Amino acid sequence: MKKIALLIIIIGFCFTSCDFQTKDTSDIQRKEFNKVVEMLLRFKFEDVVIVRTETHPIFSTNPSIPITISDTVVLIPPPPPGMIIYSKEFFNSLVNDNKLNSSDAVFMASHIDSTNVFDLEITTEYNRLVSKNNLGNIVYNDSIAIADNFDTSNYLEISSPLFNNDLSKLIFSVDYYCGALCGQGYIFVFSKLNDNWRIVKTIYTWQS
């Protein structure tokens, strides 16, 4: 009985340690991500006032593409507007461009989680976080209304982050809007060296 009790304690300790480790990693990721977003706002998007609080989910494949199962084509509903996809080809291109090594690419591709959506916690002086409930309908239906409601036409929507295993590489997408038929989309690839993040690649995804 003593051996069984000891085994249960050991197993319980292992699960608890794993939970703490996962929580610690998640907290570090969140902290680093917010730090990089604040850096972008200061040096890349200085004219932006409004930032959507909630991040956009990311995906590894496009669910609107038909797939074949047992010779039967199954149609999956189309993706939501603004869907962000990091495909196998995307990671291969970063490896070929020496922005990621192959182990980073495999790790990041396998850790894409479309349920990973969270709230930004930036603390910059000139930026205001606005939830999608307050921003979404205005943004997509009336570009003039956002200026009337928030005294600006410039705002950002940011995707959920994707880190490598040792948290030295980071990828996320940014959609920048500046009024009716005005905007640009980006994918930023960051690398961390000596506790400092820097952009190693910028990919333009759309422009209006």
Q: Overview of this structure, please?
A:
The structure is a single chain. The protein is 38% helix and 27% strand. The chain is built from 5 helices and 11 strands, in the order αβββββααβααβββββ. It has one domain (2-207). The strands form 3 sheets. Strands 1, 6, 7, 8, 9, 10 and 11 form a 7-stranded mixed β-sheet that branches. Strands 2-5 form a two-stranded parallel sheet. 22% of the residues are buried.
Helix-strand blueprint:
Blueprint lengths: L1 H42 L6 E3 L5 E2 L7 E3 L2 E3 L9 E2 L2 H9 L5 H9 L17 E3 L1 H10 L1 H8 L4 E4 L3 E2 L5 E11 L2 E12 L2 E12 L1
Parallel strand pairs: 1-6, 1-7, 2-5
Antiparallel strand pairs: 3-4, 7-9, 8-9, 9-10, 10-11
Helix pairs in contact: 2-3
At a glance:
With 208 residues, this protein is of the alpha/beta class. Helix content is 38%, strand content 27%. It starts with a helix and ends with a strand.
Number of structural domains: 1
Q: Give the radius of gyration.
A: 20 Å
Helical content (DSSP H or I, runs of 4+): 25-40%
Count of discrete alpha- or pi-helical segments spanning 4 or more residues: 5
What is the multimeric organization of the chains shown? single chain
Low-pLDDT ranges = 15-21, 74-80
Give me the secondary-structure category.
Answer: alpha/beta
* Average predicted confidence as pLDDT: 81
Order of helices and strands: HEEEEEHHEHHEEEEE
Sheet having the most strands: 7 strands, mixed
Strand content: 25-35%
Based on Cα principal axes, name the global outline: globular
Distance between the termini: 70 Å
Could you give the count of β-strands? 11
